[in-house]
Amino acid sequence: MDSFSTVIRTASHEQHVEAETSTFMSDLLGGRLGVDAYARYTEQLWFVYEALESGAERLASDPVAGPFIQPELFRLTALERDLAHLRGPRWRAGVTALPATRAYADRVRECAATWPAGYIAHHYTRYLGDLSGGQIIRDKAEKTWGFEKKGDGVRFYVFEGIANPAAFKRSYRELLDGVRADDLEKQRVVTECKRAFALNTAVFRALGEEFPLSA
Ligand code: HEM
């Protein structure tokens, strides 16, 4: 039987391709969007990570989700520095969640509060993705909008506390494989992971509508 980390990866593969090739992501990576679109996207991430990380402290002592709460992953401070750079020191006053982002953050918060194993699905979908494809986005953002390499504007993608992302991802997969849950519960987590991808894709769709290309 495949390990849980393999099951979850395989199960979300199709949706990963969908997210990766969404119009908004393609336009962003293709250098076809302005920095305002990137800033709007970063704002949406702030709401998602606020939901992921505000519940983290309480989950740290949870037997199922606890091992996943690793401070070197936390992104909220980095996002806040990026937003201060992108929107100015008063960024908080202007930040708004798209309805799709609100729905995503609400679901994360709900899992964090009531279902620790479900929270793992959201944790995996975001942080392992940030450690992987996030690095491609960072490189493109630096080149397209001229951010200082690994500096303000792209700090979200820079994991200062993780020297070896490949090794970190390996041990993360081991954590997934060691999750204390029966098969039925693991299946529910896989379903939640697919939901997490769908919630991401919905945010991309909304951003794509807000930033259509004139060409
Ligand atoms: C243009 C956007 C994206 C690119 C270029 C990209 C690229 C990649 C690449 C190359 C990997 C493989 C890394 C490895 O094997 O170690 C990966 C893994 C992953 N990505 Fe993405 N990705 C993108 C968007 C996303 C999005 C939007 C999500 C979800 C929010 C996501 C979630 C993940 C996850 C969870 C993994 C880990 C899979 C695993 O090994 O279990 N990615 N991504």
UniProtKB/TrEMBL annotation:
| Recorded superkingdom | Bacteria
Q: Does the keyword Glycosyltransferase apply?
A: no
Instruction: Quote the record's binding site residues for heme b.
Output: R9, H16, Y124, R173
A GO molecular function held by the record: metal ion binding
Coiled-coil residue windows: none
Q: Per its record, how is this protein called by name?
A: Heme oxygenase
This protein's UniProt keywords? Heme, Iron, Metal-binding
InterPro entries named among the record's database cross-references: Haem_Oase, Haem_Oase-like, Haem_Oase-like_multi-hlx
Q: Which GO terms describe its biological process?
A: heme catabolic process; heme oxidation; response to oxidative stress
